[in-house]
């Protein structure tokens, strides 16, 4: 355990620095409205990529639950409910659809 502690602390520092630097750099500058809009769209873009990948990998048995999850995520994202809420709602609807079918 004692020999693992320096390794764990080193990995903590190495992974924390790239996460902290953008916040530190951007906190000292003003961001243009177009850049702010671009940064705001990144989580929804990531959600879209994950959904498309999930659709491509889904089996033929789960067509209806997959479409229900996609539709739910799209509707909640479109109405601006937030990324986490959209994902949780899609997971819930997919689960319910799987249980009912």
Task: Give structural notes.
The chain has 101 residues and is mainly α. The chain has a domain at 31-100. It is 82% helix and 0% strand. The protein has 4 helices and no strands. It has helices spanning 4-27, 33-57, 63-78, 83-100. It is flat, with a radius of gyration of 20 Å. The mean pLDDT is 84.
Number of strands: 0
Mean pLDDT comes to 84
Proportion of beta-strand residues: under 5%
The biggest beta sheet reads:
none
Distance between the termini: 49 Å
Which percent range fits the helix content? over 70%
Unreliable stretches covering 5 or more consecutive residues: none
SSE string, helices as H and strands as E? HHHH
The number of helices is 4
**Rg, alpha carbons:** 20 Å
Determine the structural class based on helices, strands and strand pairing: mainly alpha
What global shape is seen?
Answer: flat
Protein name: Branched-chain amino acid transport protein (AzlD)
InterPro entries: Brnchd-chn_aa_trnsp_AzlD (IPR008407)
Keywords: Membrane, Transmembrane, Transmembrane helix
Transmembrane segments: 6-26, 38-56, 76-100
Keyphrases for this structure?
mainly alpha; flat
Q: How are the secondary structure elements laid out?
A:
Layout (H helix, E strand, L loop, with lengths): L3 H24 L5 H25 L5 H16 L4 H18 L1
InterPro entries: Brnchd-chn_aa_trnsp_AzlD (IPR008407)
Keywords: Membrane, Transmembrane, Transmembrane helix
Protein name: Branched-chain amino acid transport protein (AzlD)
């Amino acid at each position: 355990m004692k020999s693992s502690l320096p390794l764990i602390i080193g990995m903590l520092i190495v992974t924390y620095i790239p996460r902290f630097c953008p916040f530190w750099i951007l906190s000292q500058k003003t961001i243009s409205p177009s850049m702010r809009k671009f940064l705001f769209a990144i989580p929804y873009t990531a959600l879209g990529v994950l959904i498309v990948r999930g659709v491509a990998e889904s089996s033929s048995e789960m067509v209806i639950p997959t479409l229900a999850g996609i539709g739910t995520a799209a509707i909640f994202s479109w109405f601006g409910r937030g990324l986490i809420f959209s994902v949780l709602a899609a997971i819930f609807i997919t689960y319910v659809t799987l249980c009912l079918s």
